[in-house]
Every structure is written in C-alpha cells, then in structure tokens.
Amino acid sequence: MPKGLLSLSPILVFLTIYVVASIFAGDFYKVPISVAFLLTSIYAIAVTRGIPLRERITLFSRGAGLPDILLMIWIFILAGAFAASAKAMGAIDATVQLSLQLLPDNLLLAGLFLSACFISLSIGTSVGTVVALVPIAAGIAGATGASVPFVVGVVVGGAFFGDNLSFISDTTIMATRTQGCRMSDKFRMNSLIVVPAALVVLLLYIVLGTQLHSPQALATVDTFKVLPYVVVLITAIAGLDVLVVLVVGLLLSAAIGIAYGSYDLYGWFGAMGEGILEMGELIIVTILAGGLMALIRHGGGINYIIGFLTRRIFGPRAAELTIGLLVMFTNFCTANNTVAILTMGPIAKEIAERFGVDPRKSASLLDTFSCLAQALIPYGAQLLMAASLAALNPVEIIPYLYYPFTMGLCAILAIMFRWPRLK
Fold first, then answer.
1. Residue 123's pLDDT band (boundaries 50, 70, 90)?
2. How far apart are CA 161 and CA 383, in angstroms?
3. How confident is the model at residue 406 (pLDDT cuts 50, 70, 90)?
4. Distance between CA atoms of residues 138 and 141, nearest Å
5. Whole-Å CA distances, 76 to 73, 246, 271, 316, 373
6. Which residues of 162-190 are buried (b: 16+ CB within 10 A; e: fewer)?
7. What value does the mean pLDDT take over residues 341-361?
8. Nearest to 282 by CA among 389, 367, 193, 361
9. Which of 5, 79, 309, 339 could form a disulfide with 334 if both were Cys (CB 3.0 to 4.6 A apart)?
C-alpha cells in the first residue's frame, strides 16, 4: 500500500468504528465519539512509518497542542461555564418566554434562523453563535413541543451563513488571502451563490413554523434574567474577542443570579463546574483530532489525495469542483474549516490560475465547501458544541441542517452553470 494512502486509513477506521458500528447497533449513543477517536489515534500511531514510536507520540502531541486547538479548548471551557451558570440563574427560561411572547407562532423558526444568520455575520464565528442561541433554541423546542434536534439545526445552519460570509470570519480572511482577492469582492461573489439558498430555507421555515404552537399560558418574563444573553450578543457584534465576551456573560450571570437569590457564590461555582465537566468529551475529541491530523499530514495523506484529484482536471468546471472536493476532504481530516482553507489555499490558487478560474470564485468555493464539510462531520466544533448544550448526539442534528445542504447544492449549481458570470 502506498505510504500516502496508508496514512489516510485512520479515516476509514474512524468511520468504521463510529458510523458503521453505530448503524449496526441501531443507536449512535452505543459508541462514544471520544472512544472512536481514541481507538483511531492508537491505530494511526501504530501504522505511521519512518520514525520511532516515541517520535510518533511526540508528533501526535504537538498536533494536539497547537495554539488553535488550545484556543478552541479555552472557548469550550468558558462556554460551558457560561451556559450552565446562565441556565441555573434562569436566563434560558426567561429568554424562551420572551421569545414566545414577542414572535408569532409561525415566525419562531424563521426568527431563530434570521437571528443566527445576523449574529454570525456580525461576529464572524459560528461557534459563538451556537453558544449564544442553542440553549434558547432547545428551550423553545421544549416549550412548543417541537423536535429539539430540528430546532437546534435551525440555529446551527444559520450560524454557518455568517461563518461563510462575514468580513471578520477566519475563513473569509484566509480564503481571500490565499487566493489574492479583496474581501469585498469575495463577499459579493459569495453572496450571489449562497443568499438564494438562505432565502429558500427562510421561506421553508416560515411554512414549517405554521405547525408550531406556543403554550396558552405563558409565564411572566423577568427581563433582567435575559440580560446576560443580550450583553453577550451585543458585545460579540461590537467585535470583542469571543473569550472576553464569554467572561463578561459569565460575570453578569453570577451578579444577577446572586442578586435574585437563584444561587449563592458557592452555587455559582458549582454551576460553572458542572458546565465545564459537560464539555469534557468535546475537549477530548478536539485534542485527539488535532493529533490525528498531524499524523495524517506527516504520512503524506493530504498530498496523496491532492495528487489523485488534480490528475483528473480538464477545464474550469472540473477545476472548481476539484477545489471544492480538496477543501472538503481536508476539512473532514482536520475538523476545522479555517485550517482546511489554510492547507488547501495555495494549491487551490495554483489550480485556479492554471485553468482560468477567477480568484473571487475560487475564494468563494473554498469558503463555501469548507462550511459544507464542517456541517457534515459529527466531530466538528459547531455540532459538538450544539450537541453538548442541548444534550443531544451530534448525529441527530445533521439531518436538520437545511441551510448548509441547500448552500452546497447552490455551490454545485454555480459550478455547473458557471455562475456568476464574470468580467
């Protein structure tokens, strides 16, 4: 077996352990995703060639301890602490009741989707949007009797809208830098591809929303308990770092919770501790995924798949499709769309120049297909975070990600019909 192909085999092992075994068991809770990653990591270390065992473990550890991985873990820890302390203080219940009073039944889903789109577009991060809105979405689902995975999918899908388009999104910055185009040009190009998808999904949520019914008797809303979420959204939109935003929300939740007698100081400590522990599996998966990717890259797996795909390019359409497939495959391996674009960006630029693909189009395709891939993997940060906050299995949410699927379809149609027409 070629060395590069062998280094890709851990992906097959992971899919076998997690997906295939769960399908046979008829229950995706039977195989914890952390166990699947642990066994896959052991296999990857065992099959890595050319270096001693101790060096393989060191290589894995370096990948697991990359700055981006550790930053994500900080976000998870703070997000867990904030979500739990806000919930214990009563912020979720108050926000849900306020939403049910302000929005008509048929606009609850559309309102959630628009909120997720706007917030993610403003703050440039899908993870931050998920942290802010998923607890509210889960609460609305419980109050209206709607499916929790479905309503959570509304928020997660909208979060990918801004991740794809925002001027301050890491993916946008990385895509435009690697392709050599301006962010404003990429925004206009990308909008022509994905905004039709957002409009279609918005209309769908309006139609589906007619089936929701708010409870007849609504509790009195204590608006002060909504304040932590409002402040988190405003500070995030204002451009503060997501870590600062979460700390502000955490301290505000403590102040209101103690003032209202929802808990005392030690009760707040206990709530934070529970929230952090609930993020434990998510943190473990993130660490193992980082180490696994380091081994795959070292073994030449990424280079192998690039060489395999680029041999089959014969024109602009094939070149654009190859760019999309390359970034999707890398995203499956890295579970991080920013890292995927960074890895594939220079190669995508070379393909685009060789086959006459406009850099605005290649940048848009890189960003769009990476977001699509991120929505398809149950071990991506967005789905893991949403599942943790809503007490779900990430696989349960994937079938309800209507916007990412529609976005991907629009991107494929844009390639087939060479849309948009460029000067």
1. low
2. 15
3. very high
4. 5
5. 5, 10, 15, 41, 21
6. bbbbbeebbbbbbbbebbebebeebbebb
7. 85
8. 389
9. 339
Residues 275 and 85: their CA atoms lie apart, in Å, by 8
Q: 11-25, 148-162, 239-253: which range is least confident on average?
A: 11-25
- What token pair was written down for 336? 């991080």
Residue where the block lists tokens 């997501």: 242
- Which of the residue ranges 149-153, 215-219, 233-237 has the most confident prediction, judged by mean pLDDT? 149-153
Question: Cα separation of 171 and 232, whole Å?
Answer: 22
The CA dihedral of 398, 384, 4, 19, to the nearest 10 degrees, is -50
Enter the pTM of the model. 0.73
